[in-house]
């Protein structure tokens, strides 16, 4: 059983209403992605879609390419290497990729995505955008798998199977 902290449970409930996303799906995504650990991080070495904050534009790199053109870097004095690693890292309860948060105009230090408010906000914003982009409507399979892979997949996809199991245990999510 996974017990979400009060702040995370509250943010999921509020974001469900704000973004018109099913609460049980949000809880399942958090359960699968971070087990409710707001400080969860994971470096995704093969992730190649970055965002050039200083030029305000997407940047796709090859796996063997050095991180970004001259001037690539994060806000303020964040070096290009720190920004590169941070954008290729998933952060917080919904494991939002740093580059995805940058694309949605998050301009703070990416570790800020570990707060329940920021992490859930940017995760829900991404889900909402994917639902519009792929016209998934309320199709939970398409929505959940596009969150994980970038585009909708079938109901035999391994990520969907994890989400489905987590949704079946939704009654175990308690906010103490």
User: From the helix content, strand content and strand pairing, which structural class follows?
Assistant: mainly alpha
How much of the sequence lies in strands comes to 5-15%
Name the CATH architecture: Orthogonal Bundle
The whole-angstrom Rg is: 16 Å
Detail the poorly predicted runs: none
Give the overall shape, derived from the CA principal axes. globular
Sheet bearing the most strands, described?
Answer: 3 strands, antiparallel
Q: Give the end-to-end Cα distance, rounded to a whole number of Å.
A: 13 Å
Q: Counting H and I runs of at least 4 residues, what is the number of helices? A: 7
Describe the structure.
Helix 1 packs parallel to helix 5 and helix 5 crosses helix 6. It is globular, with a radius of gyration of 16 Å. The strands form 2 sheets. Strands 1-4-5 form a 3-stranded antiparallel beta sheet. A two-stranded antiparallel sheet has the order 2-3. It is built from 7 helices and 5 strands. It is mainly alpha-helical and 176 residues long.
């Amino acid at each position: 059983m996974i017990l979400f902290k009060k702040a995370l449970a509250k943010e999921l409930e509020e974001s469900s209403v704000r973004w018109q996303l099913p609460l049980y799906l949000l809880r399942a995504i958090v359960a699968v992605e971070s087990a409710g650990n707001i400080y969860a991080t994971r470096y995704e070495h093969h992730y190649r879609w970055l965002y050039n904050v200083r030029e305000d534009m997407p940047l796709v790199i090859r796996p063997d390419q050095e991180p970004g053109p001259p001037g690539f870097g994060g806000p303020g004095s964040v070096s290009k290497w720190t920004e590169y690693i941070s954008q290729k890292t998933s952060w917080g309860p919904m494991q939002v990729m740093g580059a995805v948060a940058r694309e949605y105009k998050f301009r703070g230090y990416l570790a800020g995505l570990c707060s329940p408010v920021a992490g859930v906000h940017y995760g829900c914003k991404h889900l909402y955008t994917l639902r519009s982009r792929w016209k998934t409507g309320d199709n939970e399979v398409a929505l959940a798998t596009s969150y994980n892979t970038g585009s909708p997949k079938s109901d035999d996809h391994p990520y969907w199977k994890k989400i489905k199991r987590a949704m079946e245990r939704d009654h175990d999510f308690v906010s103490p």
